[in-house]
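## retry 2 of 3
previous attempt timed out at serialization; input unchanged, resubmitting
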Amino acid sequence: MLTTAPRGTKDILPGEVEKWQKIEKKARELCHLYGYQEIRTPLFEHTELFTRSIGETTDIVSKEMYTFTDRGGRSITLRPEGTASTIRAYLEQKIYNLPQPTKLYYIGPMFRYDRPQAGRYRQFHQFGIEVLGVDHPAIDAEVISLALHFLNSLGLNSDPKHGGLTLHINSIGCPECRARYRDKLLAYIRDNIDQLCPDCRSRYERNPLRILDCKQKQCQTVTKDAPHLAEYLCSNCDEHFTAVKHYLDLLNIEYVEDPRLVRGLDYYTNTAFEIISTSLGAQSSICGGGRYNGLVEACGGSPTPGIGFAIGLERLLLLLPEDTTGSYRPDVFLLAFPGLSYDFAYTLQAKLRKENISVVMDYLQKSLRSQMRYANKLQAKNVVIIGDEELETGTVTLKKMDSGEQTRIKLDDLVNYLKK
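## retry succeeded, writing output
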């Protein structure tokens, strides 16, 4: 139907969009505080960018991407996440020639053909950051710190009534570590393959680490006593993870070491983390991220370390306290009589806006009573009444809508009065 939005999409209407603006404003403020700059990449990319970076065996690439052939015969995909596009821009625009490290952030829509549910849509929005060019474990802790700082600034913390946030961390090592661990994990699961869910049976040979992250009960039972990847870390990876925890301790950030945390994208290495909320049910992850030291090279660049995170804004909105957001309230509603006073109000409206005062007025030639009802519905802070008497005396009547107090003010003093 032409009057129905596609499944898995959502209109963001006035009254709700102000919540989004508040979140986006806070994200930009904090990124500026931490030294991150905004990047905006295209909504679609060549499909190969995602198959090479995310991994062909991942659920995103194998099941969830919106891919089509354009008129030039090229395979194009709507971006399912922001990291790969950021890496492509980093290489194509030669950002690596600028002073390093590169610290970037993005806010925008992503697309995945997923089963819609609360806080999860096929067009969804992410706030994410990426740091390229530095491998020091202190930056891992900074990235985690920024994510928590952002969530805390919106009123979320470890209290179950206010988000119930918990930081989970793990190290998934380097390719050499995982190769050794993969053999041990395959041997451990081999005799119980038939008990796995269909998805995990297909993952057994292609991507067995993802079995550890499966939420199906039968798979969790099979892997309950599986060996931990941390036991197979090489000395470099083990030292890096120990140092990350050291810097988190310096920042007084509490965390849970989670050996089952492996993340869903193939490009992750070393540090992996999620911020979990107790208030979201099964879909409990509010933020996910980690290190991806081989991704730039996989996309055709020189070996370059990187780390980042992404936060789903739809899911975040489910957690926000109601009193942290508010609808638009104009500073002034101009209530004018027909005729000369209406023309005067129309020009006054323009003057007030030049002074950065939010103002609206009636364009439907409503009665004065209807105009006042309209001002009430808009929750205008003040109503300025302009009639023939006001024009003759060079004054206006100002009514404070919250208190009902009315004051007669000289027109010359109106701007200063409102700015106070």
